[in-house]
Write a structure and sequence with these properties.
The protein is built from 4 helices and no strands. The N and C termini lie far apart (49 Å).
């Protein structure tokens, strides 16, 4: 199956719940319509999250391909997902701003100083 199956499943679910919400509202069943509408919001957010994840993975693959060819591509923005969530304080192993050697050296230095 496609690596985007969660995105497609969430999108299909949101469309079906939208139809169910419209049908329930047309039949004056407003409580189920509200429940369906909440489900639409949740599934829409899930589809968008999967789309962002897929777009980031494609950008990381393209960056790594260009790096393997000997080019020096600019870091992605944000350089890695951990940096975005830690406000630049930490970086993960897929960071496009730091090489893996720098990352390992940073981790080794942190653990070397511990008793």
């Amino acid at each position: 199956m496609s690596d985007r199956r969660y995105q497609h499943a969430a999108t299909v679910g949101a469309v079906l719940l939208t139809a169910a919400a419209i049908a329930a509202a047309a039949n004056r069943q407003f409580a189920p319509a509200c429940g369906f509408a909440i489900g639409v919001l949740i599934l829409t957010e899930a589809a968008l999250r999967e789309h962002r994840r897929h777009r980031r993975a494609r950008a990381e693959c393209e960056w790594a391909r260009r790096r393997a060819l000997g080019e020096h591509p600019a870091p992605l923005d944000p350089c890695c997902l951990l940096a975005r969530h830690s406000h630049g304080e930490a970086h993960d192993r897929k960071c496009t701003d730091h090489s893996l050697a720098q990352f390992v050296a940073q981790i080794e230095a942190e653990y070397r100083d511990r008793p």
